[in-house]
Amino acid sequence: MTSTAGRATPWINPRLAQGQATAADLLVIRSDPLNAETPISELRGSVTSNARFYKRNHFRIPDLDPADWRLRVTGQVSNPSTLTLPDLRRMPSRTRIVTVECAGNDRSTLDPPTPGEQWGPGAVGTAEWTGVPLIEVLARAVPAPGACEVVFRGADSGPVDRHSGTIRFERSLDLTDAQHSGALLAYAMNGEPLPALHGRPLRLVVPDWYGVASVKWLTDIEVLDHRFAGFFQTEKYCYEWERGGQVVTEPVRLQRVRSVITVPASNAVVRPGSLSIQGVAWSGLAPITSVEVSIGEGSWQQARLPGKQLPGSWREWDLVASVDAPGPTTVRVRATDAAGHTQPDEPAWNRLGYGANAVHCVPIRVTR
């Protein structure tokens, strides 16, 4: 156990958490702390089930009692407050379908390898989130003149490299992003109370941003008049390159444009003729405008984009293509968003392994 605001924080038994992930057919990357990705075949439809939504943890999972839990809103504000879950439920609510993607999604494709969890492409999910718009809580708090940053602090904590003692998981948004990103203080997921493995009783959900911004087990919101420099803000979750002999860093923020193939499965055996190809695409930078598919060394074909693009959510796509020559081949997909960003052929390597969004390739075999 560790301490949160002077109280011991109970943890969920790691074996229990792993058992839940295994029972849901998640691909467990690490058991303690639990990190497990969704099978790529389940990345479809408008939402991902709570059980099969990927799990990303830096420390053990807090087991907070919603009846005892409190959210403290402090710092550079005129009206600091302490809110209970019933307090939040009495405030205006909103429901949004939002795609949350781990910044390290598909890190295993980077060469040379980088440190961190070696995710495949399944560290992403879409859910229907219900909660209080963050802007409502900030407006009631009344940020002081000069306030510029908002820190979100979770109940999860533990040791980290090169630091003594324990570190809380905390991340910040600048005040403008906090007010205008459409972020929710979510207490429900897919119409159910927020599950413990996804941040019960309250988590932040920031549309279009990588999942690191969506702090779980939220206990504190602190408004600052200076820039925040916490461990998960400046030492992790930032792009890091070497340019001209100097290290250049850039914070992980909006999701890069990306698409994945969910059908056919990797190494599927198919017959010559028509082949149904399906998947999802998303971007935190702009709406998806185009998805293209290539088979083997063939030209790129435009996939269909049925339905309407929901802000902050992935978009399903499909294509019926023709495959004739027997033998192994590869199906590739790339997406383009309205800002003109297209997936690259190769992932952009960076030392900490974030934002890998290369063209997704699925090997198949055509047989008679």
Quick summary of this structure?
The chain has 368 residues and is mostly beta strands. The chain is built from 5 helices and 24 strands.
SSE map:
Elements lengths: L1 E3 L2 E3 L4 H10 L3 E5 L2 E4 L33 E5 L5 E3 L1 H5 L4 E8 L22 E10 H8 L7 E10 L8 E8 H6 L3 E6 L2 E2 L9 E3 L12 E7 L6 H5 L2 E6 L2 E6 L6 E6 L4 E3 L2 E10 L5 E8 L5 E2 L12 E9 L3 E11 L22 E7 L2
Structural write-up:
The protein has 368 residues and is mainly β. The chain folds into two domains: 2-251, Sulfite Oxidase, Chain A, domain 2; 258-366, Sandwich (Immunoglobulin-like). Helix content is 9%, strand content 39%. The protein has five helices and 24 strands. It has helices at residues 14-23, 85-89, 134-141, 175-180, 231-235; strands spanning 2-4, 7-9, 27-31, 34-37, 71-75, 81-83, 94-101, 124-133, 149-158, 167-174, 184-189, 192-193, 203-205, 218-224, 238-243, 246-251, 258-263, 268-270, 273-282, 288-295, 301-302, 315-323, 327-337, 360-366. The longest helix has 10 residues, at 14-23. The protein is globular, with a radius of gyration of 21 Å.
